[in-house]
Amino acid sequence: MSAILLQGAGAATSLSPFNSIDSSKLVAPSRSSLSVRSKRYIVAGSDGTNKSFGASSLVARRSEPLIPNAVATKADTAASSTSSKPGHELLLFEALQEGLEEEMDRDPHVCVMGEDVGHYGGSYKVTKGLADKFGDLRVLDTPICENAFTGMGIGAAMTGLRPVIEGMNMGFLLLAFNQISNNCGMLHYTSGGQFTIPVVIRGPGGVGRQLGAEHSQRLESYFQSIPGIQMVACSTPYNAKGLMKAAIRSENPVILFEHVLLYNLKETIPDEEYICNLEEAEMVRPGEHITILTYSRMRYHVMQAAKTLVNKGYDPEVIDIRSLKPFDLYTIGNSVKKTHRVLIVEECMRTGGIGASLTAAINENFHDYLDAPVMCLSSQDVPTPYAGTLEEWTVVQPAQIVTAVEQLCQ
Amino acid sequence: MPLHLRSSPSLKSTFLNILRQNLGFGSRSHVTRHIRQNLPHDPPLRGSQNPIRGFCNTMAEPETLSSFGQHEDASNHQVMDFPGGKVAFTPEIRFISESDKQRVPCYRVLDDNGQLITNSQFVQVSEEVAVKIYSDMVTLQIMDNIFYEAQRQGRLSFYATAIGEEAINIASAAALTPQDVIFPQYREPGVLLWRGFTLQEFANQCFGNKSDYGKGRQMPVHYGSNKLNYFTVSATIATQLPNAVGAAYSLKMDRKDACAVTYFGDGGTSEGDFHAALNFAAVMEAPVIFICRNNGWAISTPTSDQFRSDGVVVKGRAYGIRSIRVDGNDALAMYSAVHTAREMAIREQRPILIEALTYRVGHHSTSDDSTRYRSADEIEWWNKARNPLSRFRTWIESNGWWSDEAESDLRSRIKKEMLEALRVAEKTEKPNLKNMFSDVYDVPPSNLMEQELLVRQTVNSHPQDYPSDVPL
Predict the structure, then answer these.
(1) How does it assemble (chain A) (predicted)?
(2) Which of the ends of chain A has fewer CB neighbours closer than 10 A, N or C?
(3) Which domains does chain A have, with CATH numbers?
């Protein structure tokens, strides 16, 4: 019960962020349209009451201090948040592992497959210890062929298992595109609903620290058109664990995008079980002047820019869209109706990225509410250079975000 | 943050160690002496041009033992411990030939005339099973012919026949149990037929009416039935192979007394998925049977343009998979081979590869005219001299299980049933428009609901442009 969560917190400020849903209240992980679904769940409000998620409850806000650094590799950011709240502190990759382990404990059909996920524990240690605990059939090391083990996961899902397929790097999943598009996305539809494919495809993507062009790709651009799949991107240990669990429980194929540079983020997360809603965006910082939409690592660049902007007198509203397919146009729309200005900050390339689609969606749906054209800051249409200095400038920097906001808010 | 790229430094040094050992450095260098002896007529190579001699000069120190063992065996030839087992060295420079002198023999039990070959090994079938096998082959043949004609008459939009491959379809299905999961390519409707899919159900899918289990979303012949454990046909070539390995993995985990079976053509073996799936199945020790219908043609591409190996059966060994080549037009041999393969797959938890040699008598599909790239004589010969139905019929008749009367009774009954099924399917209503948007996800999300609304609005304002037979 959400109430118990609050009592356990013992503090005046609410522990649970905006979109947490008590998992015991879930009957079945079913998706429904945003407005219908929102009436079902009870969200712990920041004033200590339980209220239904409705049109007016957007004021509920995250009460933990916002993580100010662009890339939180230091532990100091967590210090302030651990003081008064219970829960345990862990790094993002550990949160993913915890979510995965809990789901594997809960449901014997959940299994993991990928390269080096077994005794090696995964390239980014997300599956560490799982092979020892669950055996090397349930945590399966595969030969190197992404199309084959993705296909394998799909076949296993059609026969009742719930595989979590790990791509060592999202870029390698380009090799699995055939299986993902043709089989994963389509077979539930073309079989007339006879076969479901509840797979989770996950892996790290995005620009890292000098990993080279091939290992710095943004696959969400390429996958976003595939009908039949859902895409989510995690950005904090809290939502990483929540999204992992929700994705595993979903009956649809879900692609969970992690980011290479966010694995060592530290945060305190609740001890109680929780999941995050797959189709909802996360309100990071409410504001009045401008809506900044972002996801994954760029969230931290945006928050860093937000500090500067606040000092300059602006009040940006920052939303981590989290759900890349479908977009949470409900949350986004409410924000646009309030601020009338939108800036999208993404890591995708300019052409055909998530930002491009989001710009189109916002223009189509909320044109009347905009006081300025939607601006989108993205990476350039170049393969990511290896040189550190160049690589840094392919990615949107906080200074650019500040300039863009100033421009939009003139 | 560690880099997790494919190469690793230790791999490179390991490789160098192997290279050094294979070239015999640090040990007696009879390698180099042997080579010089075997090249008597070539001009003596100068030291700088002979790469081995060059190496020999620069690496004079004896090699320290690496993690691999190295020792002398009784015959004074060195043997190396290497992952996978001991590897003997040889001082002869010998390449494995690209092909054996003789092709892999083909297992058959009934000769061209349907007579049982003496001393043949086969799994005995009862009269009931044999008659069902034959009847279903006839049914499949009639169904294919009638659907093909219906397409030519404009009643169906598309069709692909399995003419000539009836024995593979039916006899392999007969050797399996209903719990074995099937991953077909698209030329195996006979497996569904064997398991009880009715002619009406086939017709419903082809016409895409509201009784179709696929809800009218796919082309004809893309059948699927979860209750008969036959996975919906996905048109992409060979993508079902890794899916089958995944299903076998699932069965293995559940310790079920069942296996996964997947079908594909000779053309499908060129796809990457074929190689990867075989490799995976061998490594996972998954109980899956790979049945290749080597029917000679991939649309217009003959097997000589598809691969240069001795067919498909030899590829199994490359992946560590037990394989067999079978006469695909011999129903009894197919039955026996699949029956035996299934036992091995489940009992020993291993994959099996079966290459069934056959011929695609029909065109690739109704969009193809195969006389453009192959001679009508060739088609005629296979249809007459190697016909799987006539061979099996001779055998069951010789057992007293069949007769001319039974044949004509069966054919007229099936033909009538088939035409009736066509008639009913054609008249049955199409699925509702809402099925265009359902099942994309488990529950339609808001964007799809919006898009459906838009379509309906458009239909409302232009009803004359909307097909009259798709209910709203």
Answers:
(1) Tetramer of 2 alpha and 2 beta subunits.
(2) C
(3) 87-270 (3.40.50.970)
